[in-house]
Amino acid sequence: MQADSTLPAAQRRHYKNAFHALYRITADEGVLALWKGAGPTVVRAMSLNMGMLASYDQSVELFRDKLGAGEYQTVIGASAISGFCAAACSLPFDYVKTQIQKMQPDATGKYPYTGSLDCAMQTLKTGGPFKFYSGFPVYCVRIAPHVMMTWLFLNQIQKYQKKIGI
Question: Which parts of the chain register pLDDT below 50?
Answer without folding.
Answer: none
